[in-house]
Every structure is written in C-alpha cells, then in structure tokens.
Specification:
The structure is a single chain. The chain has about 200 residues and is mostly helical. The chain has one domain: Hypothetical protein af1432, CATH 1.10.3210. It is built from eleven helices and three strands, in the order H-H-H-H-H-H-H-H-E-E-H-H-H-E. It has a three-stranded mixed β-sheet. A hairpin with a 5-residue loop joins strand 1 and strand 2. Helix 2 runs antiparallel to helix 3 and helix 5 packs antiparallel against helix 6. The longest helix has 25 residues. The protein is globular. The chain binds fe (ii) ion (FE2). Pfam families: HD.
Amino acid sequence: MNLPDIRGVRALHERYAPTPEALDLVLTHCEIVARIAVSLAERAGLEVDAELVEVGALLHDIGVYRVGDGHYIRHGVLGHGILRAEGLPESLCRFASCHTGVGLTRRDVTEQGLPIPVADYLAESAEERLVMYADKFHSKSSPPRFLDGAAYAARVARFGADKVAAFRSLAAEFGEPDLGGLVAEYGHGFEEGAVLLR
Ligand SMILES: [Fe+2]
C-alpha cells in the first residue's frame, strides 16, 4: 500500500492547517494518538499493520482543519474527503471517517440528527479499531489533556449504555494504555475517572 512517510504526513498537515496554532494542536494530538496506538499494539502483541496504524493515527484528524465554524462532528467525513482528494488509498481515508466516538451508526446519525450523510461510520479492521480506541485517551480540549478509560467511559455514557459497552469491549481487547510517560513528556493535564462504568 502506498502510504505517506512521516515527512509526507507533516506536509499534509501543513497544507490544510489554517493557522500555526491549529497545526500544533492537531498534529500534536495525532502524534500522541499514534504513540498510544503503536504501544498498545506492541504490548498486546497484536498482529496489525504497524505502519498503517501509525500513519492512520497521524492523519485521522486532518479534517478538523476544514471544520471552521461548522459542526465538529463533520471532521471525520471532511478528513476522508481530503485524503481521497490527495489520492490516498481508501484504507487510509477510513481512519478519518471511522474514528468518531466508539463508532457512529446510521441510526446514530438519524436519531441525533447529525449533519453528515446517513451511513455507518464504524471502525472495522483491527487497525481502525485500535486507532479509534487510542484516540479516546487524549482530548484536543483547551488546554489539551489526557484521560483514562474511566474518564472516557463517563463522558460517552450520555450517548447510551451501548456506547459504554462498546468502549468496554475495546478496552478488554486492547488494554488500558500506560499514559504516565506521555503525560510527563507533553505536560498536558490528566483526567482520571472514578470507575469504568458498567
Ligand atoms: Fe482524534
């Protein structure tokens, strides 16, 4: 598969970022997600395409640059469109459209009235699921922060018990990342939840 290398990834971010601040926020987040995903894969001894995991994670939020004043939920489909327009393979474009929450179903789109085409946006391959999962442990909030599984579970609970269950099953499959080193290195805050909701 023809994937961009690290330099190509950076060039893509620089091409689409509207400001240096946006570039720093999104690229840093993508790097953190890539590091979490790769380390989870190594620790669990997963048989995944490590290069696809890394490049997919590094580009999964490229659509954030295009959201502007629009709905943030659109960043996934916008990112998919950017990567496709760049001639990148569908298997890479999918990391952009299929990483939101713990997977958006067609039913989620209609029931929540989301401003994206009605379709399923579900991580399918192990690589896609791993990146979607790793993304849940760092937030581009202002200021950016890390969060543990319990904190994410509490956050996603408002979207329904099925979403908590989906997150728990990802946690059982991939394990909880050890974020201590990244928290120290990046100096972002760390939000710890009380208990992984059932
Ligand atoms: Fe993300």
